[in-house]
Design brief:
Layout (H helix, E strand, L loop, with lengths): L12 E3 H8 L3 H10 L4 E4 L2 E5 H10 L2
Antiparallel strand pairs: 1-3, 2-3
């Protein structure tokens, strides 16, 4: 079993489970938002990397 390093909470791009812990949003919401383009992200292979600062700014502005 591979051991994954602990995520840096200050890093702007986070995997969905880490972004879920940081923002308090559900993994369902983040996954669906990445798939339909409403959550700012980058896809690396099969992994979605959520741009947490841009997501928080987007939620703050209500867009």
């Amino acid at each position: 079993m591979k051991k994954r390093l602990q995520a840096n909470p200050d890093a702007p791009f986070q995997r969905i489970p880490d972004a879920c812990r940081i923002t308090g949003l559900s993994m369902f919401f983040l996954r669906n938002g990445c798939k339909n383009g409403t959550v700012p992200h980058v896809k690396s292979g099969t992994t979605y990397m959520v741009n947490v600062p841009a997501l928080l700014e987007k939620l703050k502005d209500g867009r």
